[in-house]
UniProtKB/TrEMBL annotation, chain A:
Membrane topology note: Multi-pass membrane protein
Membrane-crossing segments per the record: 6-29, 36-56, 62-82, 89-107, 151-172, 205-230, 242-267, 279-304
Record flagged with keyword Cytoplasm: no
Protein name: Branched-chain amino acid transport system permease protein
Matching CDD domains: TM_PBP1_LivM_like (cd06581)
PANTHER family: HIGH-AFFINITY BRANCHED-CHAIN AMINO ACID TRANSPORT PROTEIN BRAE, HIGH-AFFINITY BRANCHED-CHAIN AMINO ACID TRANSPORT SYSTEM PERMEASE
Organism: Ureibacillus thermosphaericus
InterPro entries registered for this protein in UniProt: ABC_transp_permease (IPR001851), LivM-like (IPR043428)
Keywords: Cell membrane, Membrane, Transmembrane, Transmembrane helix
Taxonomic placement: Bacteria, Bacillati, Bacillota, Bacilli, Bacillales
Subcellular localization(s) per the UniProt record: Cell membrane
Keyword field contains Zinc-finger: no
From TrEMBL, chain B:
Protein name listed in UniProt: Branched-chain amino acid transport system ATP-binding protein
InterPro entries (UniProt xref): AAA+_ATPase (IPR003593), ABC_AA/LPS_Transport (IPR051120), ABC_transporter-like_ATP-bd (IPR003439), ABC_transporter-like_CS (IPR017871), BCA_ABC_TP_C (IPR032823), P-loop_NTPase (IPR027417)
Domain ABC transporter: 3-250
SMART domains in UniProt: AAA
Source organism superkingdom: Bacteria
Organism in which the protein naturally occurs: Ureibacillus thermosphaericus
Cellular component annotations (GO), alphabetically ordered: plasma membrane
Keywords: ATP-binding, Nucleotide-binding, Transport
GO biological process, any: L-isoleucine import across plasma membrane
GO MF terms held by the record: ATP binding; ATP hydrolysis activity; L-isoleucine transmembrane transporter activity; L-phenylalanine transmembrane transporter activity; L-valine transmembrane transporter activity
TrEMBL record, chain C:
Keyword Coiled coil: no
Protein name: Branched-chain amino acid transport system substrate-binding protein
SUPFAM superfamilies xref list: Periplasmic binding protein-like I
Lineage: Bacteria, Bacillati, Bacillota, Bacilli, Bacillales
Signal peptide interval: none
Gene3D superfamilies linked to this entry: 3.40.50.2300
Automatic annotation (TrEMBL), chain D:
Cellular compartments annotated: Cell membrane
Record's keyword annotation contains Metal-binding: no
Protein name listed in UniProt: Branched-chain amino acid transport system permease protein
InterPro entries: ABC_transp_permease (IPR001851), BCAA_transport_permease (IPR052157)
Predominant location: membrane
CDD domains (alphabetical): TM_PBP1_LivH_like
Transmembrane segments: 6-33, 63-82, 94-116, 136-160, 189-212, 267-285
KW Transport (keyword) present: yes
Topological type in the membrane: Multi-pass membrane protein
Amino acid sequence: MLGELLNPYYLQVLCFILINIMLALSIYVPLSSGQLSLGSAGFMGIGAYTSALLTIHYELPLYVTILVGALLAGVIGIIVGIPSLRLTGVYLAIATLGFGEVIRVLFVNWESLTKGSVGLTGIPQLGRELLKFAKSIGIEPSALGLKNNQFVYLSLVIVLLIIVLFILWFVIRQQNSRIGRAYSSIQMDEKAAESMGINITYYKVLAFAQGAFIAGLAGALFAHTIGYISPSDFSYHRAVEILIFTVFGGSEVIIGSVFGATILTLLPEVLRFVSDYRYIFYGIMLVILMAVRPQGILDLYLFYRLKGKRIKRGTS
Amino acid sequence: MVLEVKNITKRFGGITALKNISFTIQQGEIYGLIGPNGAGKTTMFNCITNIVEPTEGEIFFNGEKITKLKPYKITEKGICRTYQNIRLFPQMTALQNVMVGGHSRISAGVFRSVIRTKSQKQEEKLLKEKSEELLELVGLGQLKDQFAENLAYGQQRRLEIARALASNPTLLLLDEPAAGMNETETDNLFDLIKKIQSMGITVLIIEHDMSLVMRLCDRITVLNFGEKLAEGTPDEIQNNEAVIEAYLGKEEEETIA
Amino acid sequence: MQKYQKLFLIILATFMLILLTACGSSSTSTNSGGQSETSIEDETSGEVIQAKIGVISYLSGAGAAYGEAITQGLKLAQKEINEKGEVNIELVIEDSAGEAEQAVNAGQKLMADDSILAIIGPTLSTEFFAVAPEADLNGITIMGTSTTADGIPEIGDYVFRNSIPEALAIPAAMEKAVKRTGAKKVAIIYGNDDAFTKAGFEVMKRTAEEMGLEITTIETYQKGQSDYKAQLTKIKNTNPDLVLASALYNEGAVIIDQARKMGITVPFVGGNGFNSPQVIEIAGDAANGLIVGTPYFGDSTDPKIVEFNKKYEEEYGKKPDQFAAQAYDALYIYADALKRAGTGEDRDAFRDALAETKDFEGILGLFSFNEVGDVVMDVTVVEIKDGKFVEFEE
Amino acid sequence: MLIEQLINGITLGSIYAIVALGFTLVFGVLGIINMAHGEIFMVGAFIGVLTTSVLGWPLWLAFLASIVVTSLLGYLLEIFSLRPLRGKKGVSHLAPLISTIGVSIFLENLSHHMFGAGNKPFRTAFAEIRFEIGSITIYLVQITIFVISVILMVGLSVWLSKTKAGKALRATAENLETASILGVDTKKIITLTVIIASGMGGIAGILVGMAFNSVSPQMGLSMGLKGLAIIILGGMGNVKGAMVGGLILGLSETLLVAYGDSGYRDAIAFIMIILILLIRPQGIFGSKTAEGR
């Protein structure tokens, strides 16, 4: 029974769910401060390529390269975030979408480094590195009643899960603090927030960079999960997919991103039997969802009701 | 002298919204800013909080020049305001709204907020207590967990005042706080502003309700088409020829009655 | 009250989705080729080798046409093989939608199923690069039928392909073209955001340098472009004797059409991906003068190919392309290896048997694997003349 | 070579401009970005292929059919994905974006099923007519495209400023509520806007088919993204800006290929908008107030 549950297929799907949750959060955080950034695919690419190249060329340990990848994405997030302050709403969305495309074109053309559209192969897989490590300190998977393969994916899932839980913990704690209140107030009314003593420049760039960092982290982990990356992994489609995770689940609450990423990663797997029509179905679903529930499946009111507080959505 | 406005001029394109305005406000005063619509009152507020930058002139707060400071810095210095067209954070509860107002009075950064250090917990607790007190003060204690967007109009106005008070201001700017209120509510507002004055906070108020202004204010400046028409105590203003002609004349009956 | 109803409905719908997820994971399209009844009998008699082969194919999205051709080729081969009765193959087909992640998911699903002996696919090189290392580490044979990029069989011992790499197809075509035309100067155009066309370009450049040809200019295009005139104008002005185009037939046909309109009359040399009857359909007369190297020549008079064309058309109502042909051969190669392995359950035995494949006679010609699992076979060079593919004459 | 490349650039730019006109109209009136516009353009191109190559209709009839079908699509888009979102509480600017993305995914995949994934040839005798001036070849199609784009731009400008319906449309763009108080049937105006914008997408689609002999379900995406870039470049909601922005982009892409590295062709649109957003966020022709929504 346990062996059945530890089927690498389920574990692999679980890995992608966890990575997609991170990606959804990378859009959620800037959005919680009122910034619609569609640059996540680009930042994800930066994290993925940085970490992959560092491991391939310098054989640095993965925890270092992944962190460097995420940090670089975060720093570029600051650099992009500062000029982007002048832009709001759809302008920001399109500019960040453009940023992502520029990054992708750069990956395609910077052949000496990225091997262009052929992509980078042979990226060390995180789970396998963990297996090597476990063996080096004398832990055999068989001692735990696991096959090598099961150990690889189980350890990968566990690492990803810990990271996702940490990010969730971080974002939720931050949200219920001075920082989080500043983000929400900027989202709801920037001018009013500023006259309440909030340094909107600082907080907007902070949120933007946090989103970029999370996206970079997710990208680096993606590279070390799948073992192969190419520029087409970080295209317009990825950016839109990430946006849809968050909006589908509900962009007002953090749990919406988690929910959206989970459901929508499972959906193509579930819909394998209607494979030919699944994207048609997907498109229709988005239109209906927006018409019925434009704030996403989960929203603030639902959230508060679940917490047992009696609040009704106003009619004014 | 809490606030000194010195020769402020503000032009938008070819239109002069404020023309060489000066006045000073003393510690503990309730100071009124009145004038017909379009006289430039809200623009004056915006210049003081530097939401729009004055074209010419300087503003001093407690002797310090604040003309070029960012709006949030000005709030940190101790000036906070409310808006004519209420600008609450609609999907936050009343309590959260007030706590946002206290932003500049606590200091936790990302690290301390996430780790929840002892000092961070302490300041959050104090801020929450203070915010609840302020909600009680404005009479919204029972409604602290309601979303701001679901409050009644008068309640929203009072919530905005509580939010501004949370920033511990020395000078509070109120932009038409009585707009849309009925008589009872206006009377409550009068008491509230008096209470705020008794807390040692100086108040600068824009208001159209003349009876309230005359009862409330220690001194008043009258603006008309961006120019300063008169300054003085309510009595002086009520008897000022120019003011009566330009502004009070046609409304005298209903407002002074 | 209405609000609560709506909310309830939404929650209900969500739970249904989750439920669907839980139940749906077993919904794989299996195809036993309509021979299941006889096969059960055969199984009892113990003569027929039973095997389950996993297929990962690009069945939804922009490139679904490739995946469709491949699965049709496989199914046709499966039907014939099972009819012969020596081997009974069951195909388990999974969609990858052209995305590396979904291909990996599909691959994991197949690899985790112990009853699956080996895998065919996925369709794109970018997908293959992600799936193949997994398969190799899991000790399950994986063979690409349409993956032509460099370095694919080198991934590992369990990784093979029967699709002819650009490194074989392009030099053959270039050599013949240069010999006939006496070309000295060549211009190159290729799609730089696609792994397939990029790989082809690298071969072209290398070969041109080796042959001592002068490269007048190198131009690129990107997916979804429809205007190639700027690049072609530039090429035209460098007066090349040949244009080397590493493009998939979809874009390639449009490029050659626009080039002819612009007055570029020199022959085009293309890779494997440029070889499709579609080129003639899209570009019409403009397609004349296209030279491609290919393992598969659909209009050949070879009786095997004529027979294959006939059967395919009967089954699916259209002419097969090289993707269908390569997939068709791939399953026959698997069946051949199965016979030699003698069992359909031992993944390692199958791998060893497959690696020994030598001079297998398929519709594409004589086929062998070299030591790393790459293709050894002759390349046919064809050209379009008077609106038809004909064998290239020197 | 320069002259030839300039002709190439102007042809491409004119098509970009027509696509951008559709974007800019919808944005000007509704304040939303219609992400499905590129796909409507693609459907327009396919209708052209279907009517000329398959049914053998004359070109003018193909144009008409294409405009009719895309206008109808525009109407359906308005009814199903835009109208339900309008005036609803709690609808952020994200909702119409996602909703139209949904429509674009739907249309692209539907076309895969109906027409197949590959390129379809678009062959008309008209596309073969050409003039040779010295070493330079100009196709009549190229001239036609430029002329049509200019006519559309001028026509639209005149229509907006001179006719009653146009004025009503501008009033609606200015302020929805005020316009409806003034007696403008805003619902009708909005529907009309989306229909006109989509019809122009159809025209652009058929022109691309003629000029480049290349129609495929994927063509909508890249054209859509370019269209977005152009309206930011020219100024959101500005008719003249769409035209000039389109030409600038078409020319700079062509010249980049001619004198630079063709590998960066797809990035130039975005590099340009990133620059323009930083230097002049309201776009070349945009008014100052357009900044930030």
